[in-house]
Write a structure and sequence with these properties.
Elements lengths: L8 E6 L6 H11 L3 E6 H8 L3 H10 L3 H17 L4 E5 L6 H10 L4 E6 L8 H6 L5 E4 L5 H6 L5 E3 L20 H4 L3 E4 L4 H12 L4 E4 L3 H5 L3 H7 L7 H10 L3 E3 L11 H9 L3 E4 L2 H4 L9 E3 L2 H13 L1 H18 L2 H12 L17
Parallel strand pairs: 1-2, 1-3, 3-4, 4-5, 5-6, 7-8, 9-10, 10-11
Helix pairs in contact: 1-17, 2-4, 4-5, 9-15, 13-16
Length: about 375
């Protein structure tokens, strides 16, 4: 890309956090020998926002384009000054189409990539206006390829979500404190949604002991307060604790949002990669690679989930065999290193994978 032997320099635009998708991709690109930094889009917009807390609140729901333009200017200058080769924008990160167009004008050799990990409902106007400017749209759902094409995408790849072994170590050994995670029939780790509450309360109604680890949104939003007192554990879990809870629970629930159907969510890969036994909502895009009762367990609705959960708990040895098969398939072909390599291949960007002696990544 650069015409010389120096490493490819990449910048990931989005939220800067080790447990965010941006962090997983940053680690994966570095593993592939790409010199990778991150640019905190929300923080940059925050520096440009005026009016204190009121201005911040207004800008959150009614974005002020002038403030976004100042942040986009910071991004543009960084790309030019650091002579970046690759800019990866994550999801709906707020970058103006004009800034991306100017990157192409000022540094035409720089490749622009949009990694899209979400329902098309969250594809906002600033993202839609930018779609024709990207050299690649890497979208999590094969069924969103045609919509992106209709919106003007020039090149697209189906790049599903994946598993990050550095964030959720699959070799993590259960600790004595893991007993609290294991003391249930099934657990769910994640944010609140009405569909998730419905699944949990229906399973409790069938007599199952369910634990939910998640933020205080569960306490604020749950409609069945009596059931909430039985299942919500009062805190969320991240990183190693998240992995430990999944590994320790007899079954890990994965109610995929109907807005994401038929694609896999992130938790689909995290449960399997962490060594958990998954009970996942139907996920047609992944069922060929992870067949039902062979490398995963699927349910169609809450009533169906109760019957399947009962069968899994009555055949623990068989269920653990399914979980092991699923984990092997995830580690072999569904980590973020594999996804990063797919993106680099699509862009014809050379990579030099680092040795894997200290990680469980399989070379793509």
């Amino acid at each position: 890309m650069t015409g010389h032997s120096s490493p490819t320099k990449a910048l990931i635009v989005g939220r800067v956090s080790d447990d965010a998708l941006e962090g997983s991709y940053a680690r994966a690109f570095r593993h592939m020998g790409i010199e990778t930094a991150q640019w905190n889009s929300p923080a940059a917009i925050g520096r440009s926002t005026r009016g204190g807390r009121v201005g911040t609140l207004v800008n959150q729901f009614l974005p002020v384009e002038a403030w976004t333009a100042k942040a986009s200017r910071e991004l543009l200058l960084r790309v030019i000054e650091e002579r970046l080769d690759l800019v990866v924008v994550m999801g709906s990160s707020r970058v103006l189409p004009g800034a991306l167009a100017q990157i192409k004008a000022s540094r035409p050799e720089c490749k622009l990539v949009l990694i899209w990990p979400d329902t098309m409902l969250n594809c906002y106007s600033h993202t839609i206006g930018s779609i024709p400017l990207y050299d690649l749209i890497a979208t999590y759902s094969v069924h969103s390829l045609d919509p992106f094409n209709r919106l003007g995408a020039r090149k697209m790849e189906w790049v599903p979500l994946a598993f990050d072994p550095e964030l959720h170590p699959p070799e993590l050994e259960p600790e004595t404190t893991a007993g609290v995670y294991a003391d249930c029939d099934a657990s769910f780790v994640g944010n609140y949604s009405p569909e998730r509450e419905e699944l949990v309360t229906r399973l409790i109604g069938h007599g199952f002991r369910i634990k939910v680890w998640g933020p205080t949104e569960w306490q604020r939003s749950a409609k069945d307060r009596k059931a909430l007192a039985k299942y919500w554990q009062g805190r969320e879990l991240l990183g190693r604790d998240y992995c430990l809870a999944i590994k320790s629970a007899p079954v890990s629930l994965n109610p995929i949002s109907p807005l994401n159907f038929p694609a896999a969510n992130m938790r689909f890969f995290e449960i399997l990669g962490s060594g958990g036994t998954p009970l996942s909502a139907a996920c047609p895009e992944m069922e060929a690679g992870f067949p039902n009762q062979e490398a995963c367990f699927y349910y169609d609705d809450a009533a169906d989930a109760a019957e399947i959960l009962k069968d899994i708990l009555s055949s623990r040895d068989s269920a653990q065999l399914v979980a092991r098969r699923g984990q092997e398939r995830v580690l072999a072909a569904h980590t973020y290193v594999h996804r990063a390599q797919q993106i680099l291949n699509a862009l014809s960007v050379p990579s030099q994978p680092r040795p894997t002696s200290d990680t469980v990544y399989s070379e793509p």
